[in-house]
Description:
By secondary structure, the protein is of the alpha/beta class. It is built from 9 helices and 10 strands. The protein has a 6-stranded mixed β-sheet with strand order 5-4-6-7-10-9, sandwiched between helices. The protein has a 4-stranded antiparallel β-sheet with strand order 1-2-3-8, with no helix packed on it. Helix 2 runs parallel beside helix 3 and helix 8 (about 225-235) crosses helix 9. It is globular, with a radius of gyration of 18 Å. The model has no long low-confidence stretch (mean pLDDT about 95).
Amino acid sequence: xxxxxxxxxxxxxxxxxxxxxxxxxxxxxxxxxxxxxxxxxxxxxxxxxxxxxxxxxxxxxxxxxxxxxxxxxxxxxxxxxxxxxxxxxxxxxxxxxxxxxxxxxxxxxxxxxxxxxxxxxxxxxxxxxxxxxxxxxxxxxxxxxxxxxxxxxxxxxxxxxxxxxxxxxxxxxxxxxxxxxxxxxxxxxxxxxxxxxxxxxxxxxxxxxxxxxxxxxxxxxxxxxxxxxxxxxxxxxxxxxxxxxxxxxxxxxxxxxxxxxxxxxxxxxxxxxx
Length: 274
């Protein structure tokens, strides 16, 4: 498959190439930037997932959707595993951790961002500095975080070793095979280069999980993501009537992809064998 270029619409307006990696069956953003250099490509104001405050209608929509998603995510995890030790990796402002703790989970959080770390500390949330072998977690969650991580195979091995037998790993990712990804093409907001280092679909993330030793328990559609991603994509296109277009196209993307678990974003739930 030929490489293609995608624009960073959010910060730099620079072009980055997506190169297909046959070994991982996924697209990689190139050039691969160092973690230090990558910080220059995050918004200077608080990254939206790291804040509780909304400055405009789009951000209020994001935070409302995030609140709805948290309820759904917690239900997905809770029906598959008894309450135990849970790590939210890439915890942002800690909203999911707080919700899990309120439901009786023993919770821990990790985030790279200093802004997020300060918020987690302020909220009194238990934080870890790294994921270690034999940490004995019952559940590890990464909600739209895995695509930000380099060396995906090594990351999965690390999470596998940190889980108890029978433990759950939940990965929420944008799905580049969804209808809205194909419709918006180079304007699809969930490419989000260069912050998203890797770009997966249902088959690639399933194969990676199995290669790391997990078995696939469930693949879940993420209903609300299609609307938010469509809205950003319409705005990147400078569309007139971006909001109504995003509602129509987000709904259509969900309708087209729902039965085949191929919506704009999906969550794959993996289990370490007992």
